[in-house]
Amino acid sequence: MTTDVRRVVATAVEEELLRAGRSTRWLSQQVGITGDELREKLAGEADFTVADLAEIAQALDIAVAQLTPRPH
Q1: pTM of the full structure
Q2: Is the pLDDT of residue 72 over 70?
Q3: Section 60-65 average pLDDT
Q4: CB under 8 Å, gap of 24 or more: what pairs does 6-10 form?
Q5: Quick check: 23 and 34 in contact, CB under 8 A?
Q6: CATH 3.30.9.10 is right for the domain spanning 3-65
Q7: Is the pLDDT at 1 greater than 90, yes or no?
């Protein structure tokens, strides 16, 4: 994943967390990743996997497409 795509995905995750009124701690517990790992992903330093995005979407009760970049 390129840095730009990482940032778009991370921003989408952060926006959906905010919309849902949930914390990163809550999310890390829901999806089974450490807080440090989630922070790295949200900072664009590591990639979200497809499985991560599916679990995040399920935890937030949204479609996975809401967390992925839109085609041009």
Answers
A1: 0.89
A2: no
A3: 96
A4: 6/41, 6/44, 6/46, 6/47, 6/48, 7/44, 8/69, 9/48, 9/53, 9/67, 9/68, 9/69, 10/41, 10/42, 10/43, 10/44, 10/48
A5: no
A6: no
A7: no
